[in-house]
Amino acid sequence: MSAMLAPSAEEAQEGRLRSLLRRTRADRRSLIGIIIIVFILLMASVGAALWPYDPTTADFTRTLLPPNRLNWFGTDELGRDVLARILAGARVSLLVGAVSVGIALAVGTAIGLAAGYVGGAVDGLLMRLMDVLFAFPSILLALAITAVLGPSLQNAILAIAVVYVPVFARMARGQTLVVREMNYVEAMRAMGMRESRIMVGTVLPNILPPLLVLGSLLFASAIITESYLSFLGLGIQPPDPSWGNMLKNAIGFLSEAPWMAWFPGVAIFLAVLGFNLCGDGLRDRLDPRDQ
Amino acid sequence: MRKTMLALAAAAALIALPQNADAQKRGGTLTVGLVSDPVTLDPAFMGSYFENFIQFNLHDTLVHMTPDMEIEPGLAEYRMIDDLTLELKLRPDLKFHDGTPLDAEAVKFNLDRYLDPKTGSARRSELGPVKSVDVVDARTVQIKMDQPFSQLLVALANRAGMMVSPTALRTMGADFATKAVGAGPFKFVSWTKNGQFVLERFDGYWRKGMPYLDKIVFRPISDETVRLTNLRSGTAQLIDAVPPQSLSGLKSDKNIDIVQRDGVGFYAYSFNVRKPPFDDVRVRRAFVMSVDPNIIQRVVYFNTGRPAHGPIPPAIKWAFDPDFKGVPYDPAGAKKLLADAGHPNGLPVTLTVTSSPINVRNAEIVQSQATQAGFKVQIRQIDASSNIRVLRAGDFEINQSTWSGRPDPDGNMFNWFSEKGPNNFAGLKNAELTALLVKARRTLDRPARVKMYHEAQEMIAKESPMLFTHFDAIIQASRANLKWTQYADGAFHLFDASLE
C-alpha cells in the first residue's frame, strides 16, 4: 500500500500543474501579462538587433532632439538614440530580474526547506539569520551591499538577490512545515526512505508552485530595485544604459526634453505590469480558497 | 544680461556711495534656496563650500572683496607699512551682534585664535607667514610677517578675516558652532538643520542704512528642479546653482532674473602620476589631447562659462590669459602619442567621478572622446565622501577634481601643484614648479606675479598632471523684485539686497 503512495502523489502533482497551466491560459489577466513579457523579450532580442542605432555612441551634433523620423524616441543629452537605449536597457532589466530572482529562489528555497524540514536548532539559526536580513528595509540593504562591493551590474544583481533570499526562505519554510506533516510524507518515512530523498524528491516539488508565483512578483520588484540602484549610480555603469540610469539622466531635463523620461518610465511600467499580471494570475489559480 | 548689467551698475553705485541708502526699499523677508546646509558657523572651522552662501551675511571681514574679486576696505582700512607689516585701522564704534565692542583687542583675539596651533583651525595655513598681531591703539592693529605674503589680504577678505565676539566664544562654548555671534549685516536667529537657517537685520551694522532686508531665511534644497520650482512659484526669491540647460526655458519668464558671470573655479580631472599608466607624461598628454573642452562647453554647459585649458579662471581678470591654449585638442596626435608610449592597441583606464548627473555627463563625454584616441575608459561612480577618501589614498587612475576656486591665482595653483599642496591629488613632484609657486606667493608686485603664474601655467601644461575642461559660470536666479549683487566666487553678500 505504501509503495503505491509515492507515484500517486507525483501523479496528483502532475495533474495539478496541468490544470494550473490550463486555467492560467484561460485567465485574461495572465494572458495580457504574458503578451507584455513576450513583447519585451522580443524587443530586447530582435528589436535591439534590428534597430540601426548603437545605444552608447554619442553624437554631439544631435543632442536633445525630440522624437523624429530618424530617432523615434528622440535623443538624449549626449545625442544618443533613446529607443536604442531602451532596447539595450530591456536586456539589462530582464537579466537583473532573472538572475537575481533565480539566485534568491534557489538559495532561499534551500534555506527554508532545510530549516522547515530539519527543524530544531538548524531552523532557529537559519531563520534568525533571515530575520536579520529582513530587519533592514530592502532598498537600504541593497544600497548598503552595492556601496560596500562597489557599483557594477554584477554587484547590483548580487545585492538584489541577497535582499530577496529571506523572502523565499520564509515562504519555503512555511510551506515545508505544512507538507512535512502530510500523510504521504509520513508514509515515506515509515517506508524507511532516506530523509534527504524525501526532502528533495517529495517536499521540494510540493512547495515549489507558490514559490514560483512569488518569484514572478519579485521579478517585477527586482526591475524596480535595479532602477533605484542605477538611479543612484550604483547599478550598471555608463555609458551602458539601464532604464533606471536613463531616468536619472532625464531628471535634469524634465522641462527641456521630457521624452528622455517618458520612454524609460513607460518601459519600467510595462515590464512591472507584465510580471505583476502574470504573478497575480498564478496566485489566484493557486489560492486554496478558490479550489 | 541687461538685468545683470543693471544690477551690477546699481551695485557699483551703492559701493561708491554707501550713504545714498534711501534709493532702495527697506524691510521684507528674503527666502534663499541653497544646494546644501552649512556645516558650522564658526569661521575657525569652516571648510564647506556651502558655508560661502551664509558666511558673509552673518560675519564681516577685516577687508572686503568687490564682486570682481578686488580688495577694498571692510571692517578696517588697510595699508602696507612695509613688505612685512600690514596696518589695519578699524572703523569707529564697531560692535558685535551681542553689543560688545569690535576693537583692536577683539581683532587680535580672533587672529591669535586662528593662528594658535591648539585651535586646530584651517585658517592658520591661510595666514601663512604671519608672525604676530600687535595692538597699536584701540582701533589700530599691525600684522607682522616673516616673509612677504601676497595672499594676506585675500585671506583677510575671507574666513581668516572674519571677526567673532570673544565674549560669546567664551560663554557659549560648543554652542558657538551652531549659534555664532559675529559682526555681519545680519545676526543669528535660528537654525534647524536641513530645514532652515534664519538671520535678521543687525541694527548696529556699520554701513549707514544697511542692510535693507529685515530677515533672510536660507533653505537647503538639494534637487535642482525643486529649487527652480520654488523660485518659479515665488516661495524662494533667490536661488543658487541654476542648471545651464534650464536657462532657455527661464528666459521667457518675466518674473525671474537669471544672473550669471565668470566664476573663479575650474572643472578638471587629476591623473594619478604616482603609478602606471599615468606616470608617463606622454600618456597624460595623449589623454588631454584627446578631449575637446569646447564640446563639453556646448553639450554639458549649453555655452555658459568657458572652456578651460589651465587653472587660472577668467573671473580673475588681471591674471587670466584668454590666448592660453594649454595642450591643444588633437585626437590624431593623441593616438600617435599613445602608441609611442607603448600602447599601440589602446589602453584601458578607469575614470572615477562622484555620482551626480552633471559629473556623469561630463565623464561620458570625456569617455566618448578619449575612446577615439585609443583609451578604453571605464567610469566608476562613487559618492562624494568616498571620493575624498579615494583622492587622499591615491586609489584612482583619473579622478574628477572640481574646485570652487579662489579670488587669486595662488588659490587655484599653490595647493594643487606644489609638491606638498593639500589638493595635489595627482601626486605631481616638480621642484621647479613648486619653487616658482612659492616665489609667486612671496611677491607683492602684481605684474611680476602675473608673469610667474603664466610661466607656471605653461609648466603645468607641459607636465599635464590634470585635464582641465571647463570654467563654470556662476549661474544664480532671483525674482525680478529682488535687487542684489552677484560675486565671482558665487558667495551671497546680501547687505545691499532689497525687495522692491
Low-confidence stretches of chain A: 1-6
Instruction: Give helix and strand order of chain A, one letter per element, not per position.
Output: HHHHHHHHHH
Shape of chain A: elongated
Radius of gyration of chain B: 23 Å
Q: Name the structural class of chain B.
A: alpha+beta
| Largest pleated sheet of chain B | 7 strands, mixed
Q: Kindly state the number of beta strands of chain A.
A: 0
Quaternary structure annotation: heterodimer
Largest interface, with counts of residues having CB < 8 Å to the other chain, equals: A-B, 24 and 27 residues
Overall average residue pLDDT of chain A: 86
Q: What does the average pLDDT of chain B come to?
A: 93
Helix content of chain A: over 70%
What is the helix tally of chain A? 10
Q: Give me the side-by-side strand order of the main sheet of chain B.
A: 8-9-10-1-11-19-12
Total DSSP helices of chain B: 17
What proportion of the residues of chain B form beta strands (DSSP E)?
15-25%
Beta strand % of chain A: under 5%
Basic shape of chain B: globular
Can you summarize the main beta sheet of chain A? none
